[in-house]
Write a structure and sequence with these properties.
It is built from 3 helices and no strands. α1 runs antiparallel to α2. It is globular and about 35 Å long. The relative contact order is 0.17. About 55% of the residues lie in helices and about 0% in strands. The protein has about 80 residues and is mainly alpha-helical. It comes from Anisodus acutangulus.
Length: about 80
């Protein structure tokens, strides 16, 4: 029998009390990339932020933001 995978979403965050999670998604994406910049690509501390933004953000947004970061046009504070 195959190992079971436990799926979880990001925990509730008091900064984002409404059902619209757009800002929550964006903030978690920025927090992940700030963490990677500060601690390096292999830092286990950053894994939780990656899980959070991947659970909250549509894939199309992440792809666009990744392209913007590569081009130096990302609108957020990294």
């Amino acid at each position: 029998m195959a190992d079971e995978i436990e799926l979880k979403t990001a925990p509730a965050d008091f900064r984002f009390p409404t059902t619209n999670q757009t800002r929550h998604c964006f903030t978690r994406y920025v927090e992940f990339h700030r963490c990677v910049t500060a601690k390096g690509d292999e830092a286990a501390d950053c894994d939780k932020f990656a899980k959070y933004y991947r659970a909250l953000c549509p894939g199309e947004w992440v792809e666009r933001w990744n392209e913007q970061r590569e081009n130096g046009t990302f609108p957020g504070p990294l």
